[in-house]
Amino acid sequence: MIQIKNLYFKYEDELVLNNINLRLNDSSYTAIIGANGSGKTTLAKHLNALLLPTKGTVIVDEIDTKKDQFNVRKNVGFIFQSPEDQLVHSIVEEDIAFGLENIGIETDAIKNKVRTILRLLNIEYLAKKNVNMISAGQKQLTALAGVLVMEPKYIVFDEPTTTLDNKNKRNIMGIIAKLNKKDKIGIILVTNLLSDIKYAENVVVMGEGKIIFNDKKSKLNKSILKKAGLDV
Amino acid sequence: MFKKLTFGQYTYKNSIIHKLDPRIKIITVVLLSATAFLMNSYYKFAVFSLFIFLLMILSKINFSSLLRNLRPFFFMFLFILLMYIFFSRNELDQGIRTIWKFILFIIIASILTFTTTITNMVSAIEKLLIPLKMIKINPRTIAVLIALTIRFVPSLFLYADRIRDARLARLGNLKTPKQIKLLFLPLIERVFKSASNLSDAMLSRNYTEKRTTYFNIIRLKYYDYISLSLLLMFILFILRVV
User: Fold this and answer.
1) DSSP for A59-117?
2) Which domain, by its residues, includes B95?
3) Would you call A97 and B215 a contact, using CB atoms and an 8 Å cutoff?
4) Between these two residues, B215 and A29, which has the higher pLDDT value?
5) Of A40, A52, B99, B128, which is the most buried if we count CB atoms within 10 A?
6) pLDDT tens-digit map of B212-225
7) CATH class of A2-227
8) Are B205 and A150 an interchain contact pair (Cβ–Cβ within 8 Å)?
């Protein structure tokens, strides 16, 4: 379980997150939705300890993000908006192995895990390809493989479909839903598109650094979305 | 212009050069570049160029993409040549040799990057720079820095291409210094944003300056020693005999 208590985050004297309290259960699918500048990406970065609270706490499976970033990052994977900027190595299989090398997995085990993930996502044909010569959709799948291979308990997706066409978008959203339903991975999807929250069970709506709605998707209504500055 | 640029990008091929230990390849690049720097007669240039041509064939490099990679340097070559024509015409011959050397340097470096994956390059640089640990410099940091530079060269050209198209659509051309500034400022901004995103992406996957395991373990084999010996013989031959 991820528990956020009285979280405040200041950036250059500007209060970006203002008293956030949130609980994300294991294997749940939560969408965090809000207009640009609402603080949703800042909040998401706290879950992977990329940002640390100015005040308050973020606890991931009983680990305080301020105290142990290494184990927090092992438990919470993060997929960024632009696949172009998150691939470190030039060859697909080597990029997938990057995280495993960092956490000290042995060479044979790395090779097995990489092979399994490539098969799972049906991208074995990409293994030896140069990341600069594959499509945006394939890059996003490679980024996802690089996170999945570390077997995280939760994955944060920060607007993962922004740079994708409709076909790739449907594919990625389908995979995310399957990871939650079949593999019981907790999903936190950050988006500003209502169409992206189709598979989410819970929705958190953010506006001006505050949570203005946090409940089941079925309870979400137009007035809340309008209040958050989202097109209905 | 930049879309098809594959400068410095690894391409998977089943070749002898691909199989060589990356440390041997890096040492080869250093030794061949130093040799090219020391050469002065056209005869030596011809023999040396033939050797590089042989390496290109052995690497199974795509010749057309290699030529395409030389295209962005055309203006630099032209500039060097014009400098010699205007200011030192009696040494024009020297100018031609300088350009020839540059072309050879680019081809030698391309052979390395075409045939070596970034992971292997990082491992090799880490191992070659181990002595730096004595002066408290972490070789992994330098290795990752070099590797990321190579990885992001095409992205840089891609961003430049996109910004250039956007600017051309609004300005019509990019000829005056002010218009060129409008091309470079957003490019620099984009590069910094990319660097920030990349560092976040690396941290999110637990990157640290220490690592204990490797996806590819590099080990010197008998053909690495043979290749290095052949290379040293060739260099001695070209510097002493030819």
Assistant:
1) EETTEETTT-HHHHHHHEEEE-S-GGGT--SSBHHHHHHHHHHHTT--HHHHHHHHHHH
2) 1-117+216-242
3) yes
4) A29
5) A40
6) 788 888 889 999 99
7) alpha beta
8) yes
